[in-house]
Amino acid sequence: MPSSPIRVTVWHEHVHDRTNDAVKKLYPDGMHTVVKQAIEEHLGNDVTVRTALLEQPDHGLTDEVLANTDVLTWWGHCAHDQVDDAIVQKVHRRVLEGMGLVVLHSGHYAKIFKKLLGTTCSLRWREAGEKERLWCLMPGHPIADGLDDEYFEIEHTEMYGELFDIPTPDELIFVSWFEGGEVFRSGCTWNRGKGKIFYFRPGHETFPIYYHKQVRRVIANAVKHLAPSRSSAPVRLEAPCIDPPLSPITTVHQVDQSLHDH
Ligand code: ZN
Fold first, then answer.
1. Which end of the chain is more exposed for a tag (fewer CB within 10 A), N or C?
2. 35 with 210: CB under 8 angstroms?
3. Alpha carbons 103 and 198: distance in angstroms, whole number
4. How far is ligand 1, taken at its centre, from the CA of residue 253, in Å?
5. pTM (two decimals)
6. 116: CA distance to ligand 1 center in Å?
């Protein structure tokens, strides 16, 4: 573990747990508090966790908060379009600089997730309270640490099915089977710049999924795994012209500077 705690920000849209009775009952203090507890339960003194909400100024993601966040978790569902593009741009830059991003469930349609992945991130879905079985494809992966079988089950959930329109993941850690017949890539990682992204499917708000033992463990594992590495290698976010060159070039070449002036 790093010598200093991983600084985690749990971001939550926080709409349905204020407006829908079933969700209020499951998450009386908001889903973000339960996700925060899951991370603290497993990582203890190795993390400091704060929460940030859509309704707060800058959605709780001020420059100061983002600069002091090692891993951001993201849950949104009905208010993706209310997230300010300027904040999305700042989060995007922080990911490229090395901040980890854990995107949960309906966050598949979050602006930040689509921007980082570059695809529609669309999928099939059905809310029928069916069983889900999540198979672990990479039992040696740190995100699967602590699981005691080749799969775990969620008794009642919303189905997400393929085709999930995402770029091929760098790592595919979980695949879900659903009682109704579909399958889904439920636990995927991607590298973007110096940062890592983990998408984890479980979490529909009318089922008690963030109280589920293995789901909580996987989220905490992901936070630990996505924390920025100790690498001091620089990350370049612009495209500078390298002139003069690093070593002499003998070619005689006339540059049409007008092509580069923009
Ligand atoms: Zn859902």
1. C
2. yes
3. 6
4. 58
5. 0.95
6. 21
**Distance in Å, CA 159 to ligand 1 centroid:** 8
CATH number of the domain to which 210 belongs: 3.40.50.880
Residue 131: inside a domain: no
Give 71 Cα–ligand 1 centroid separation in angstroms.
23
CA of 184 to the centre of ligand 1 (A): 14
Contact by Cβ (8 Å): 104, 135:
no
Ligand 1 centroid vs 70 CA: distance in angstroms? 26
In-domain check, residue 148: no
Q: How many domains does the chain have?
A: 1
> ω into residue 96 within 30 of 0, thus cis?
no
Asked whether the beta carbons of 185 and 134 are under 8 A apart, the reply is no
Is 110 a member of any domain?
yes
Distance (angstroms) between ligand 1 centre and the Cα of 233 equals 39
- The rounded Å distance from CA 129 to ligand 1 centre is 11
- Is the four-CA dihedral 155, 156, 158, 159 of positive or negative sign? positive
> Has residue 236 been placed in a domain?
no
pLDDT at position 1, please? 46
Token representation of residue 239: 């495209």
- Residue 42 confidence (pLDDT): 97
Residues of the chain with pLDDT under 70: 1-3
Length of the chain, in residues: 262
The pLDDT value recorded for residue 13 is 97
Provide the 3-class DSSP secondary structure of residue 13.
coil
Distance from residue 120's CA to the centre of ligand 1 (Å): 17
Tell me if the bond preceding 244 is cis, omega within 30° of 0.
Answer: yes
- C-alpha of residue 78 to centroid of ligand 1, in Å: 10
* Contact partners, residue 176, CB within 8 Å, separation at least 6: 132, 133, 134, 135, 160, 183, 184, 185, 186, 201
Residue 177 has what pLDDT?
98
